[in-house]
Amino acid sequence: MKRNHKNNYAYIDGANLHKGVDSLGWQLDYERFRIWLRDKYSIERAYIFIGLIPTHKNLYKYLQESGFILVYKEVVYGSDGNPKGNCDADLVLQTVVDSYENKFNKAVIVSSDGDYSSMIKFLQEKNKLHVILSPREEKNCSILLKRTGAKISYINDQKSLLESSQKEKAPDGDKTP
C-alpha cells in the first residue's frame, strides 16, 4: 500500500530538544524519533539546528545517519566556558523561507521556546502549521507558545516509543573526542 505523500517538514531546535528530554530524565533515540516523525507526521525533511563543536563530530554523524539534515551554527564560549550556539534565528529564517517558497505543506516545530511564538503565528496565518512538539512537560512549555492556540504535543508522552534502550550516553555525550 502506498503511503500518502504529505511533504511535511520538521524544524528542530537541537539544544532545546536535547535539554528538554534530558531534564525529564531519559535519553532520546534519534533513529526512532526520525522514524516516528516520518510515520506520525509524514515528515519528508527533518532539520536539526545545532551548534557546531568539532569534538561532537560522532554525534553529528549519528544524527545524519538517522536521517536528519543538520544546520550548523558557529558557537561562541561564554565567560563560564560553556558553548552557546543560539540557532533560533536560523530556524525561523529557514522555516519562513521554505514556507514562502512553498517547499512543504505543513511544518512541525520541535521546541518549548517562546521565542518561536511569532513564527508559529505566521505559520498559522498561512495554514502551514501541523503541530508543536514540546520536549518539556506541559508546565515547562512556554506560555507564549500556549497563547498562540496552536496544537502542542509533548514528546514525553511518547517516551515508551522514543527512549534509547542504551544505558550509555549518545556518541560524544561524554565530551570525549
TrEMBL record:
Pfam families: NYN
Domain of life: Bacteria
Annotated GO MF terms: RNA nuclease activity
Protein name per Swiss-Prot or TrEMBL: NYN domain-containing protein
UniProt xrefs under InterPro entries: LabA, NYN
Domain spans labelled NYN: 11-140
